[in-house]
Write a sequence for this structure.
């Protein structure tokens, strides 16, 4: 059973998974699909056709524009924006108001377990790798590898993080999670758990 606040605007054409919660003033548009146990915070926006896997959290006032796809376990911090228009304009070159047919939507794809920090902006089309972390306030303009920690404007890799979200520490040829003790190996700019 899902929980939907009375002040939320949830399209009857959307799918809300079992155990999911949609809080006050959130909007979930038509054809959006939320997996089980998702949390949509106050004032968050989920665009038409957006897909969220199980156990995703979209915090207060985040904007998830279509056609974004979030894998299971993704965290979207407060006021994050996932864009969908490479060349945004309100009007066509002749001055007429743009309609749905006047632009091609492109999306942000976020892989399993990744986290996007508060007020970060992901400029579509980009893919955020599994278990990666985008620091608060970052502006992501390029794909982010699995387990990468990126920060800045534009975002650049500043380290690695493990599944627990903590920055990894290099010990010899391994990167080690200080919380779980898990070991990772870096090869050609990519990290994998061993």
């Amino acid at each position: 059973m899902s929980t939907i606040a009375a002040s939320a605007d949830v399209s009857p054409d959307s799918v809300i998974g079992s155990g999911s919660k949609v809080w006050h003033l959130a909007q979930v548009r038509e054809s959006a699909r939320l997996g089980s146990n998702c949390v949509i915070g106050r004032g968050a926006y989920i665009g038409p056709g957006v897909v969220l896997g199980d156990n995703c959290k979209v915090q207060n006032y985040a904007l998830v524009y279509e056609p974004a796809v979030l894998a299971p376990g993704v965290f979207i911090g407060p006021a994050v924006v996932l864009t969908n228009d490479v060349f945004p304009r309100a009007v066509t070159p002749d001055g007429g108001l743009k309609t749905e047919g006047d632009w091609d939507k492109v999306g942000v794809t976020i892989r399993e377990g990744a986290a996007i920090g508060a007020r970060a902006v992901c400029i579509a089309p980009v893919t955020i790798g599994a278990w990666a972390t985008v620091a608060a306030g970052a502006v992501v303009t390029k794909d982010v590898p699995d387990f990468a920690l990126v920060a800045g404007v534009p975002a650049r890799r500043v380290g690695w993080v493990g599944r627990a979200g903590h920055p990894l520490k290099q010990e010899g040829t391994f990167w080690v999670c200080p919380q779980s003790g898990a070991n990772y190996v870096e090869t050609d700019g990519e990290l994998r758990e061993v």
Notes: Residues 148 and 160 are 5 Å apart (CA to CA).
